[in-house]
Amino acid sequence: MKKRIIVGLAALSAILVGVVIYTIAGIERATTKLERLVALHQVEILRERLLIELNSVQSDLYLKNTRYARSIDTVVAHVRTMNRVSDGCLGCHHVDSVRRKLEGLRDRVHEYENSLSRVLTLRGNRARLEAEEDGAYRIGSRLASELDDITTMTSARLGEQTRAAYGDIDRTTKLLYVLLGITPFFATGLAIVLVRGVTRPIATLVSATRRLESGDLGHRIEGMRGEYGKVAASFNEMARSLEESWRKMQWAEQILVLGELAGGLAHEINNPLAGIKASMEALSGSPSLTGEPREIIVEVIRQIERIELLVKGLLDFAKPPAPRFLSVNVNDVVDGTLSLARKHPRFVPRDSSRIEVAKDFAADLPRIMADPLQLQQVLLNLLLNAADAMPEGGTITARTSREDGTRYIRVTIADTGTGVAEAVMGKIFLPFFTTKTKGTGLGLATTKRLVEQHGGRIGVANRPTGGAEFSVILPVSPEGTLLEAGAGAGEP
Ligand code: ADP
């Protein structure tokens, strides 16, 4: 934006300077043309004056020796004026061709003057005087006709030049008016564009802030570039971390409420349930109970055991025991859990379905501080879910590796099952979310809590070749917690 404002102002200044230069040049051109015209008109006036003086002298010559003849002084005065005028013509600046013409004219005036002085000074010789008078008159007439010719020729050209000069001045004036008329509009338009360029992004930022304020934490600013783009990127980053913190807070609040609820429920349910179960077991042991009534009692006991399991799961999730940290070898814990899982009914081959287990353990894993039982619970949950996702059988791969040098270790449980549907990817760690008919939806929620109690995080991704892959990242020591470092993939 800064660049755009500078370019805009530079363009505006350049336009204004251009208009001013053009205006000054227009005025200069018009002034030069007018000066030339004035000079030409002055020459014209001088020529007219020369003709008038010449005609006066010619009439003096004509009236000589009559009773209308003027005094010799008047004639001399006219001749002198003629001389002055013709010299004056030469005084102006002229191009060479004009100057040559004017010099010829002045020579002719001098010739006329000489002839006249002879006429005025000759006495006695009448014949010679008459001859001189005729000669002077002829020179005067020729001079007059030359001046006449020049005047006729030049006045036509002068008229043409005057019209052209007025045309030029008119055009320049119109153009200047147009420029002066356009410039304010152009400047205003440019100013509007620049001001909009500044205010529009600010309005977008303000409205985005308001949306954030009103609780729309998912709102992001798109399509901004330059300096505002950087501000928008910072805003988006702030909104993202705000959204994440809010989700974490919500999650923590949910867990807190659930913990209290589960504690209360467990207390209220477990005691009467234990009594009912004991009575039912006693009843089922009675030899007098046979047939259908006995089957009903056995089913009741089975259902009570399901409720017990659910209550236990709820308690495990809501109020998991604090971990008892010991130095453990993760490879050993994973190996032990795999052996345990293999004995679970879900791993027992049914029909043609068979679950293969593959191990890919890193040899140089550092020991970590963890609760081995809780770690086992986490892994068992993931393994049983993997088995559930492969009703037709498949392969589960358990992998361990180092993460970020020696600070963290990663345990991956990958399967070749159905994979997690994209639509539920963000929900599977939420308590009570399940897609199974007999599921409780507490397995992954509890797993996540246990991992977080170890300062680690858990994430999920679908494998390109099919199936899901759950990753658990754990710090080598509990101080290197990952929780503050941000959410993992698949976190609610
Ligand atoms: P439950 O097993 O009782 O359904 P969980 O919290 O363990 O509860 O799992 C929640 C949901 O996550 C499951 O219902 C299932 O849809 C999905 N899920 C978990 N593990 C896998 C897996 N390995 N492959 C595909 N989906 C899975």
Q: How would you characterize this protein structure?
A:
This protein is α+β, with helices and mostly antiparallel strands and 492 residues long. The chain has 9 helices and 7 strands; from the N terminus they run ααααααβαββαββαββ. It has helices at residues 2-63, 72-91, 96-121, 126-213, 226-285, 291-318, 330-342, 372-388, 443-453; strands spanning 326-328, 355-360, 368-370, 394-403, 408-414, 457-462, 468-475. It has a 5-stranded mixed sheet with strand order 2-4-5-7-6, covered by helices on one side. A two-stranded antiparallel sheet has the order 1-3. A hairpin with a 4-residue loop joins strand 4 and strand 5. Adenosine-5'-diphosphate (ADP) is lined by residues 385-386, 389, 415, 417-420, 428, 433-436, 439-441, 443-445, 468.
Put the structure in a nutshell:
The protein is α+β, with helices and mostly antiparallel strands. The two termini are 39 Å apart.
